[in-house]
Amino acid sequence: MADTTPSTPYGAPYFSSVKADNIDPESNIGSGPDAMPLKGVVKQVTGAVQSAGGNASKTMALPLIATNPRALDVIFSDVVNALDFGVTTDSADNAAGLQAAINAAVNSGKCLYIPSGVYKYTPPLVIPGPLHITGDGCLPLFGSLYQDAISDAINIPMVDPYFSGTVLRPSSNGQSAFVCSAAGISVSGDNFGVSFQTPFTGTGHMLDFQPADASNGKADMGLMGATWRNVGLYGHDGDHYMFNLVNPLYNTFDSCKAFGGGFSHLHATINGGNSLFMRTLSMVIVGGAAHGYAFSTKDNGQAMQLITMLGVQCITDSQPHDAGIAPSPPTNAQSLIHCDPNCHQFAIVAPDLETTVSSFSVFPPDSTFVDRVSGGLSTGITYAGSGSPSFAKDFLQGGAEFQCGVVAATETTGTVTFPDAYYHSTPVVNLEGYGVDAKLSAAPEWNQFSYELSAPGSFGWTAVGR
């Protein structure tokens, strides 16, 4: 049969160009009975276009064949694939291969891709420069709620290796899964899970990011401009976090989840913060020093500020575990959200904060807390610098607060102080005299109102505000 492949741009000149780039047009695409030479694919595509009445040489704009083709080795090096460095699901220790892949990705500026599978290694893996790690998914394996007598698949994964998709399995040798001491760089990740081989004991953090100069009194920035999305951690102990970050700035954490110790500890030796948490989950199920979300500053002398938390969830709860694993339960000293006195301007919107061990939360004194969804939460909140839980309502903006009372006045003028002050809006106050005329003598204030009566007597009052 005659070669009817158009001469331009997909005919002989094209195949000459790809031969020059060491691409054989007779090489197969695919495998097995469906394999076809590259030249045959071009014939089928151009033939289909011609059959439809089109002119393939003029109108074909499919990405299958480029007008300026690159060599295959260039095409396949758009990302750094960990499998090209000897990483396998069969190896008991992929540390060398994973580290080589990380170094190659950092040096080339390309994304590190780790395909679906379970990869064991001995931590830590050192991240020397800017890096983005991506996998094929992070799907928690909760399993059936009724799979065994102790199952509680509602809150934690119960099926080893606890995630499907791309799963890294560091050994529990007291080291963090990833460490970085660079200054002011972005290390991001998406769609993979980390599951410690021996869960809930003797682990480190998932990402421990401490710029080298931050520990010796010199100021340097840490993780900056990073985005972490759909990444999971299972099995860290109660003294460690998914993210342990010193001087972080401009970071986003989206739909990430941690099962074991805490979710994040952001610490400032200089100013840090300006970060966003969206629908993240912290299941603190192991006793230790870690809080669900912790924010701190060096000697309370610097500032961690401008943190926004949207729909975050934190639960401190003693849970059953797969295969008879039973770590020590969390304690009420492990806060759901914990801030020291030099944290400022937090916005905490529609959180889900739950505890079975009487944990509490410590918020910045100038925080905004919107749309409370956890019942009875106000009794478990204090504000940094104040030990009195009664301050909680001052900043809970879950809607208007109604207050009322009755006053038996012996004078015709006076002042009434609200039991709960209205910090966010001037309240609307109404008076009703019982046998006397009662009216406001001045506009209400945030903490009180003044009244005037036609004669000594009793009156009732109502106030609505925020």
From TrEMBL:
<dbReference type="InterPro" id="IPR011050">
    <property type="entry name" value="Pectin_lyase_fold/virulence"/>
</dbReference>
<dbReference type="InterPro" id="IPR012334">
    <property type="entry name" value="Pectin_lyas_fold"/>
</dbReference>
<keyword id="KW-0456">Lyase</keyword>
<dbReference type="GO" id="GO:0016829">
    <property type="term" value="F:lyase activity"/>
</dbReference>
<dbReference type="Pfam" id="PF12708">
    <property type="entry name" value="Pect-lyase_RHGA_epim"/>
</dbReference>
<protein>
    <submittedName>
        <fullName>Pectate lyase superfamily protein</fullName>
    </submittedName>
</protein>
<feature type="domain" description="Rhamnogalacturonase A/B/Epimerase-like pectate lyase">
    <location>
        <begin position="80"/>
        <end position="140"/>
    </location>
</feature>
<dbReference type="InterPro" id="IPR024535">
    <property type="entry name" value="RHGA/B-epi-like_pectate_lyase"/>
</dbReference>
